[in-house]
Structures are given as C-alpha cells and as structure tokens.
Amino acid sequence: MSADIEMQGGEQAGPTCVVDVQTQNAQPPDAEVVLAWSDLTVTSTRGKKKLLDNLTGQAGPGFTAIMGPSGAGKSTLLNALACRLDKGATMDGKVRLNNKLYELNHLKRLSSYVMQDDLLNAHHTVEETLLYAAKLRLPPSTSVTERVARIEEVIDATKLHHCRHTLVGSPLRKGISGGERKRLSVAMELLTRPMLIFLDEPTSGLDSSVAMSVCVLLRELAETRRCTILCTIHQPSAKIFSLFHKLFLLQGGKIVFQGDPSTAVTVFAQHGFPCPPLTNPADHLMDVISPHTSHIHVDARASFSNWSLTEPPIVFEDQGSKLELDLRERMPWFRQYLVLLDRCRKEQQRKWRTSLTQLLQGLAMATLIGGVFFQIGTTQASIAKRLPVLFFCCINQGIFGAMSTVNSFPAERVLTLRERASGMYFVSAYFAAKTTAESLVYLITPVFFSSVAYWMIGLQPIFGKFVVFTCFMILCTLAAVSLAQAVSAICRDVDTSVVVLPMFLEVTRLFGGFFLAPALSKDWMIPFDYLSYVRYSYSGVALSQLEGLVLTCTSNELAKTKDGVCPVTSGQQTIDTLGLGELSIAANAGVLIAFITICRIVAFLGIRYIKW
What we know:
- By secondary structure, this protein is α/β, with parallel strands linked by helices.
- It is 51% helix and 10% strand.
- The chain contains 22 helices and eleven strands.
- The strands form three sheets. Strands 6-7-8-4-9-10 form a six-stranded mixed β-sheet, sandwiched between helices.
- Helix 6 links the parallel strand 7 and strand 8 (228-232).
- The longest helix has 31 residues, at 427-457.
C-alpha cells in the first residue's frame, strides 16, 4: 500500500487534509500499513502553546500503545495522526503511509477510530447496531448475504454472540455491560476491515478483567489481521502492558521513548532507574516521567533529551507515486435516508411509552378543555368563550409539542458527531430522516386532540371546518416542534435548551393576537407579531370559526340591551372589530408552512456547522 500525504497547519483553525482519491469513500487494499510521522508539531491557537513538539516516530502492524501522564499529549498525538484535531489547534509536519508522503483529508476512509466514550444508540440491540452500521458504511453494491457474513465476522472477532439480541441500553435502561459496549464500538469499526485502527483510552472506565479482555481482543486482531493498531492508555496493568508490541512514552509533548515495552524497562534501568521488584513496569515508567514525582525523578526529566531511549531517526524517501486504492462507491443520499428513517422508526417503536404518554396527554387536555368550555353555543355569551378557547387550543398544542422535542438533537449530538466523523452518512440525510420520523409521531396527537375537543366545545358542526381546525392544530404543533428543533440544534446542551426555549414560547404567546388584537398593535410590536407562529394558528382557526357564524340573543340578553336588538349577530363583526382578517385562512396556513421550513433550515444549519 502506498500513499502521497502531507499535513499543513498554517493559520487555519485545524490541519488542512486532502487525499488524492477520486471518491469520498476509499477502501485500502489488504496490505500491511506502516504509519510514520516526522517533525510533527501541534500548537494551540489559544495562547500559542505547543501541545506536541517536533515528534518523529512510526508504528507498523501490531498493537502499539501511547502512554504518558495527564497532559503529556497522548490524545493530541492520536488525533493528529487520525486527522481529528479540534479547531483550536494547528498542525505542522509530515505523516506517511508506507514511506510515502500524502495529505490526510480522507484518512477516515482508510482507517477506523474508536472514541474513549462508547457512543451508541441505547434503543437498538447489538445486532441491529451492527446492521445499520453495515448498511451505511459498506458499499451499496454489497449484497444482503455479504452484509450478513460481514456482521457475523465481526461478531465472531469481538465475541459478542451471547448478547447479540440484547439492547445496548443506557444509564437509565439496563443493557449490555461496559466491556461489551467497548467491544461493540470496536466491532462497528471493523465492518470495513480497516488496516489502521485508532483507539482513545479503550480501557477507560472498565474494571481490570474487562480491560484485559478488550486488550487481548485488540492484540489478537493485530496479529491475525496484521492491522496497525494505535491506542492511548493512561496506566495499564502489568498483564495489559505485556500485550503491547510497541510503546511510545510521552512527557511534556515530547516522545521520550519508542520501542519494545520490555526494552523500555531495560533502558530506564541502564540510566539509573531500575524497576523495583514486584512493581508494575508501566507504573514504574510513569513514576519516572510524571511531573507529579518531580521531587524523586527530577534528574531523569532534566536529562531526557540526552538519553538514547528512542529508535534511530526515520529517514523518509520522497516518492511521487500516489496511493492506489480499491475505490468504493458511497451510499447514495436517498438510500442513506431510507436506512436512517428505518433506524429512527425502530427507535420510536422502542420508545412507545413516551409516544403513548403524549397521546394520553393530548386526550386528557382535550377532555379538560372540552369540559370547561362544554357546548358554548351561539349566544352572546359564547363570544367571550369562543376566542379564548381557540387561543388556548393553539397554545396547548404548541407547548406540549415543543417541550417534548427540546432535548431531541442535544441528546444525540455526540453520537451524530461520532458517526459523521466516521463518514457514515450525509448530515442532510440524517436530519431529513429524523425530522420525518418525529413528524409522523406529532401528526397523531393533534388529530386525536381535535376529534375530542372540537365536538365537546361545540364549535361549528361543519365537517369542513373541523378539518380546517385539525389542520391548524397539526401546523401549530409542527411549528412549535420546528422552533424547538432550531433552538436545540443551536444550543450546546439540553440544560441550555430548556432555558432558552420557554422564552421564545412566551414571546409567541404574548404576541399571538389574543391578548392584543393585531389592529391594536403598536409599531414596535409588529415584528414580534409577524414572528409568532401562534398568531397565524390562532388567526386561522378564528377566521374559520367566525366566518358564517350566526349569533343569537337569549331573552335575558335582549332584556339587557337598550333597544332590544342583538348587538352582535355574526362572527364577521368580531373579525372586523379585532382585525383578524388581515390574512386569509389559506394565507395563515402558508405562513405557518414557511415558518416550519425556515426553522428546520436553521436547525439543519445548526446540526451541520455547530459542533461546540
């Protein structure tokens, strides 16, 4: 395998990475991979601090560990090699595959990266998780038989047979164990048969026995598949330490040792720092280089630059040939959309209790509203009830829809960032699938709500007007949901979303056209009137219910008038008085559709570009 790769930092927010391939998905041939780097420097753009200082090294087929105390630069080195540095860092240096220089724009297509946190969908089983990953990551030409065989292959490799039908689970829902989650994360990355695998702290949060089983798995993969596996690890046990084929020791952003782990112990002993009996070699090495033991090993750190602890300098031979790749076609957008839609649908099915609660909540509120405003009739007294109940219906549908959506995107943000970093799908395909699946759920509750509330309240007994009322309840719900999606996509987390969203909801209610009629709005209020989705929902249903409405007077109401004439005989009089006829029913619906569209565009842009 060969490559022509180059990394540049410059004044950019992160490294510039470009691969000389013709598609965005590329699969390396079955060949051993040697990853080498020279003069690798990473600098924080905030304060210009050097995180990595002029590093040179290489890692070939085998299980390679990057060790060092906290802040030594372990994860920074791993992320630099994997082209996953944060925007707040710049990188300079050269990285090569098999001694050939190339730029790293699509290294994620040639390798796999397992994050420290096992970010998985809690509502899918182990097998379903692998199935959806395979559908999204394998070439579209892969047959069903081949896909199933690949899934069985990684299940065998990661020993997940016994839990394949178990839900992944979450802290609040029992599922697979921590070790099984880690193996599942590895299994997902093995689906594409990568020859280069990066792992960030694969033993973090695991007990000793589970950590050992994960590392044994990684060593077996390195030996049987001849993979190049690099992982960061803080302080492994002696048994885990013995599994590594190669070791990098970092201290202060510099490599102080690279080579065979057993050689490290020997060389440190030769320089006056022998490993005490019955002591974990990894603990001993960390003690020597750790800044927290400066009172013990100050001489060691002061003389690191003079130690011959590293392998001889790597001499790169410049070659002009490009990496020859077995190019694979990327999954078409619509097929990604269908796979993601099916995944979201299954997730919604698993969350049936939440959906049922929303439905029961809608029915309960419809019954309460219908009970309070039961059969309002068409007398003069009904005027004081008709508009308030219509406005309250709009508010009710909006607020419940919005609050049930506010945590939607923040809860999945880290999961989608991992999947996007692995190149699993287009962001637009994910967004379209998720919003489609959720919208289908939000269509049901307004229909049931309207079916109960409309007839209990005693609004105009005309089926066409009932349909209009139901449509506006649906549009009102979708508008509130879309607003919540936009807020949640922009906000950093759920806590921020639940603080920001109520402010927007209160503004839309205040300027919804009920507390202050549009005809009475002052100039400075007009922008808020136009931006309130409640105004258009309320105006739409109010127009529908007031148009053609004939009002009467009871004998008592006539007795209270001066001339014995009914003061209000039609709904049109109310429309004219309050200025509700500024827009037609269809125009109000059109504005709501435009509001929904704009909010969803904002939500998409937030998901696409805001990563916090």
